[in-house]
Amino acid sequence: MIGQTISHYIILEKLGEGGMGVVYKARDTKLDRDVALKFLPAHLAASEQDKARFVQEAKAASAINHPNICTIYSIDEHESQMFIVMEFVDGQTLRHKGGSITYKQAIDCGIQIAEGLAAAHEKGIVHRDIKPENIMIRKDGIAQIMDFGLAKLRASGSKITRLTREGSTVGTAGYMSPEQVQGLDSDHRSDIFSYGVLLYELLTGQLPFKGVHETAIAYEIVNVDPAPMSSMKPDIDPSLDAIILECLEKDPRERTQSIAQTSLDLKRYRRESSRSRVSRITAARPSYQASGSSAAAVPGTVSASRQAGRLPWILTGVLFIATVASLIYNSVNAPSNDLSTVRFTVPPPQGGVLVGYAPVISPDGQRIAFVARDSSRLVRLWVRPLAHFFAEPLAGTDNASYPFWSPDSRFLGFFQNGKLKKIDVEGGPAQTVADAADGRGGSWSASGVIIFSPNYGAGLYQVPESGGEGTIVTTLDKSRQEETHRFPHFMPDGKHFTYLGRSSDKEKTGVYFSSLEDTARTLLVPSPSQAVYVDPGFLLFIREKSLMAQSFDAGKGAFLGNAVPIAEQVGRNTRGNGFFSCSAGGILVFLEGESGDERQIGWYDRTGKLLETVGAPGDIGDMALSPDENRIVFRRGDPQTGNQDLWIYDLLRHTESRFTFRGTVDDDPVWSPDGSRIAFDSNPDGVRNPYEKVASGAGTERLLWKFSTNTVPYDWSADGRYILLMQDNPDTKSDLLALPNFGDKKPFPVVQTEAAEDIGRLSPDGRWIAYQSDESTSLEVYVQAFPVSQGKWQVSVGGGGAPVWGKEGKEIFYIAPDRRLMAVEIKLLGTSIEQGIPKPLFETTIDGYDLPNRYAVSRGGKRFLINNSAAGDSSRPANVVLNWRSEISRK
Fold this sequence. Notes:
Elements: E1 5-6, E2 9-18, E3 21-28, E4 33-39, H1 48-62, E5 72-78, E6 81-87, E7 91-93, H2 94-97, H3 103-122, E8 125-126, E9 135-138, E10 143-145, E11 152-153, H4 178-181, H5 188-204, H6 214-223, H7 238-247, H8 259-277, H9 304-307, H10 318-333, E12 342-346, E13 353-354, E14 360-361, E15 367-373, E16 379-385, E17 392-393, E18 401-405, E19 411-416, E20 419-424, E21 431-435, E22 442-444, E23 449-452, E24 461-464, E25 471-472, E26 482-490, E27 496-503, E28 510-515, E29 518-525, E30 532-534, E31 538-543, E32 546-553, E33 558-567, E34 580-582, E35 588-590, E36 599-605, E37 610-625, E38 631-637, E39 644-650, E40 655-658, E41 667-671, E42 677-682, E43 689-694, E44 702-703, E45 711-716, E46 722-729, E47 733-740, E48 748-751, E49 757-762, E50 768-773, E51 780-785, E52 792-794, E53 801-805, E54 811-815, E55 820-828, E56 833-835, E57 839-843, E58 855-857, E59 863-869, E60 878-882, H11 885-890
């Protein structure tokens, strides 16, 4: 074909040939540039499957715009031959270039390949044939991934998702993952394994798995652990060995779960190596593997039809509002010691309750944002200008948590449904900033950086305000038994920050001072919650139940003088969120009491009538009713110690006793069918894993299975053979697994799709599973066969979550988005089911329709044990203090 003109391309030379195509260098006469044309080989042209795979390569690669991936321009056909037009890369393959690459260049190359793969995986694309021949090194040193001919498009809605069928072997001998060798389905972690092989070979000059023929190589890949690279090249650092060997784990669950994390680890290794060469030894951070767009309401612009339904924050009148506005202005613009301290309260929305997060005042001191459940039972973000009568809810913020302001007081950051989001308080949809499976606070710097805690067992991450993938800022110190870093707060320079570091050793919990530019950190003060900096130089923190203010040098991270109390009985929740905030000008807002939303377990009849309360109210979370209905196991938080332990309440004796003493977060209790054992999850190493313990409390806990991502128990089959689990999955959000209590006891997936499956419950006969999923436009309840799926039926209508089977298997109950308890009649017909029309029973005040273990059903379905909001919380006001600094001057 050399010299031919195809379309407007002149073929110049043949560049190479592979199993999925012949590649030529060509000249694009229209755009006057060199390109590469890849043609489907003639002997494969008749195969519709190969044509489809060829098109898939183009679609897969063209979906990615990244400097480390070869750019696809278009796809065309000439005389029944299909071809792809792609970027011409002037360079050599890694196979040809590898021998001349230095150690430092190999690390740089590895980082670039990892970043390119991360971009592909983010689009749902798995390459499945990573090898040196498919990596081009340009003359300028940039590495680019080529040949997506074997890519598997995993994105939802793709019509081509399994071109290479399950059970076939795909890839190149020596570089395939164990799951590829065995013909099993593979995902992005297969690329991570092949990447580990490639980098191992690049650094040592040898493949980790050897053999005289493909079968011998395949055997080693599946059965033989590779030798450490340092055993062949002693100058290779053991920390680099650890990074690569983690990519080469046989079991995908034990393997590095994100290639983006490998890129971060290599960058950190490169940085620390450079520092060590100049004798600047610093502690490397260990890797961490982290798991509504409607228009917002504009405050003050409510239509007449909504005017009557507005939820007022009742003050005392227009005159008082004007006075407050004047005081706010003066408190910001006048010296603090020239003004008197002013205190007043602001009630929650009428008929509602402030949910247990700190209300946050904007940096300019003009508005308060808070999370509240209103009279319709919806939990949303609300914004209330201090100089106005009314607060307004922000649309698209349902189930929001831990809000924080942008430095210009225009945006609110918050956490919702596994994401860190932001929203313009003047109107506009909520926008996703980053993944955050279960966020625990954030802070926004003037330079446009957001630092945040993505979940309860992690260090802090940072991300640009425009959005992207979070990068690690702090890591947990296991020598201090640290469990979490959370609730950060930036200093004015936008580099230094404080955060709460919690440890299972309560004596080591406190507020720390650190920087984005350095791993060093300093313990400032023992405290159970966060600290907040206020100009012209005060740090606010909680000691016992008092809010303290102490002079503070924000540049050096050092206290000056003594701490002075400025508010008493300041509350906090058990997660370490102190219920206070302060504007840049010094306007303080706080709540009194402990958790903002105490719970009370009680028995209710089918009409919603309270029959009796059970135990004392408090920070009560997940619960489970024993099979004989004589005991309840539930999680209770201790606001003084921060412990989250399981307790057992005896319904016959009306006594309560502590069940776990781990000093960790113990949650999601499940009774064995005979009531002799309790399964639950705990996080001693920062990852939630399933444990079990004898229900009498005797003995110690036993780990059921070690998972690499958060995995929690939800149910135990009536025959005792299976425990049903939910596992966080970075690729598929969350999946339902079954853990057998027999045989090899190896867990296996039950429901695993691109959607988030959660809260699975087994039917009394053990043949069906009900669960919630977000596969449609809303969260709904579905039923399918167990353990092997045979069809699927949607049970809920108009949204629903947290399903529970009636003990007789004739009803399924679930919670609607408005917190009503719903009931659906069910007929189980062998291989199918029939369901009736969902009927509302009564309203609840549980803290979420998508949360597990908030209610249980008695035999016969006549009574319901519900963890509702405790009475008396709805009227607790927010306290506002102006000019508190003048009191400090006097003290």
